[in-house]
Queue: 2 jobs
Job 1
Amino acid sequence: MAADNTVMAELWNGPSGENWIRFDEHHNRGLRPWGEALLTAAAPAAGERVLDVGCGTGWTTRNAARAVGDGHAWGADISQMLVTRAAATAEAEGVRNVAFTVADAQIYPFEAGGLDLAISRFGVMFFADAVAAFANIGRALVPGGRLAFACWQEMAHNPWIGVPFRAMTAEVGAPEPPPPDAPGPWSLAEPDRVRSVLGAAGFAGVELDSVEAPMWLGDTVDEAYEFIGGSRNAGLLLEGKDPEAAARALAALRRALEGVEAGDEGLALPGRAWVVTATRP
């Protein structure tokens, strides 16, 4: 049995989870283009049983549940606080054919062949052992069952994070880049690695579709500054830094956002992700 995701569990049951809940609606609005592209590619159908891996606060789970009608959607996430929020939101919206579980999808004992479809909106980039995780998810699918997920392409194709990151690191320096297969937002950015991981996990018919869209950052500079400056990534970048340097970095962030041309729907910068599909033979 593969090792569990202890480090990720600590983060998402602590500061990362708290931050996600703080900006829950903001995230859902910003990520909507890729969430919608994911659901289109996954094509959940009436009567199907769907697993949403790394469901967070349940946006994709609830929408999958609506699509399957008399079927069922099950959201699994490593964070108790996110699962609690997801269940409360589903209840408030009247989505009944849905359930949420605190589960590490890398090692959770899913019922073999109990699902028709597994989906994830940016929730599968954080596994300590990606091959073991996808193999475990694959065992939960019926033969011919489908996998569909969204994952970020490399930072160079994502100015929504690259522009703020470069502005801040010009003042405090950039951290050492993690190994390419380390858990994190860029762990599945390379198509060859995606194909290798999914192939080793037993999936076939792997396809990657590039989806580019504007990432909404906020209606105003102040809102975008609060969102990015208050993010967990910014917090990690500034952690332990000299207060004056951290203040300069935040000032640089604001200047960078002031340079973003606002459109009818506020401030946005380009983002690019893969929507990946595969099947269990």
Job 2
Amino acid sequence: MKTQIPTSIQDLKTAITEEKLSGKNICIHSSIKSFGGLENGPQGIIEAFLKEDCTIIVPTFTDKYEVNPEKNMMPMQNGWDYSYKIESCCDEIYSIDSVEIEIKDMGILPTTIVNANGRIRGNHPLNSFSAIGKNAEKMIKGQKPLNVYYPLEKLVDENGYVILMGVDYNTLTLLHLAEQKAGRNLFRRWAKDEQGKTMMAEVGSCSDGFTNFSKYFNDKEIAKERMVGKSLWKIINAKELLAFATTLIKENPNITMCDKKCLRCLDAVKGGPIM
């Protein structure tokens, strides 16, 4: 049996330098399994990017702190069935020091980063982003419950990049920001604030339909593809992506619709919650 040679840290550094990503702020969505084998696992990715002076941003979402809404916090068209009750509400209050994360949904790299020394985590109880690297604080510190995509806006402002490592566009959180820029209100969910009172927090829509963008991105060569080991990377300039995707959503609102035409997708296409 032929032994699989793992993707080395040097292989990663070569990809970073050849794609002129050194020193950049980069939001990564990844499948570690896509590499087949990876030297030092997710820590190898962190090491390679930090050695090239990059700052890594990852989504570190968690459902643990979500609670049921109060009566004055139930906007219409909110992608939510208000007859549904969360049975396992947590009494804990979220903190930026928390290491809670939805490991299955977020993956191994975000889990590694949220547990790393020196990482910065955003102040959002449900959809936090975390970053590690020289610009981590600058990229994250403005995130708040009602400013969920601050890290992505900073990524755009700083001419940063998104890399999809072995995953598809349905993981691309930046497309939620494009929905907002196209005029949609973000959905509201609920958590406890620092005083233990229920508050509303912005969250994104369903992302299953985001694979619908693939054809348009391919036609305009929005993403540059590169094999790194066995992992197919899609390397995307955040500013170019946001501008193009925002226009697409304005011209064709149904482009974000998933095959199931779920409640979140239906309400998002209508413009999101009526506030």
